[in-house]
Specification:
By secondary structure, the chain is an alpha+beta fold. It has a single domain, classed as NAD(P)-binding Rossmann-like Domain (Rossmann fold). Helices cover about 40% and strands about 10% of the residues.
Length: about 90
């Protein structure tokens, strides 16, 4: 993970440093969980939005961060996890 220090040190050079921290995403890495109804129910119960993210949802955040609309964001990490970290039961 990139540090805030890197973002602050690079900002004077107009280099933005922003991390993206995705939560559970429906990708092959999560196939075991997605194939097990019990595991999926437990995971979905831990996510306030009640479901995994799609790769498209994560890519839209990355695209936003690469756009001019995010030109004043640096030394930050954007958490894209459906609210999971705000109420994690300790999965």
């Amino acid at each position: 993970m990139l540090t805030r220090t890197a973002g602050v040190e690079l900002a004077p050079h107009n280099i933005l440093v922003v991390g993206v921290a995705p939560g559970a995403v429906a990708t092959p890495i999560n196939q075991v969980t997605m194939k097990d109804r019990t595991l999926m129910a437990r995971l979905e119960a831990a996510i306030p939005l009640g479901r995994m993210a799609t790769t498209n949802e994560i890519s839209k955040v990355v695209a936003f961060l690469a756009s001019d609309a995010a030109s004043y964001i640096t030394a930050s990490t954007i958490v894209v996890d459906g609210g999971m970290m705000q109420q994690s039961p300790g999965l």
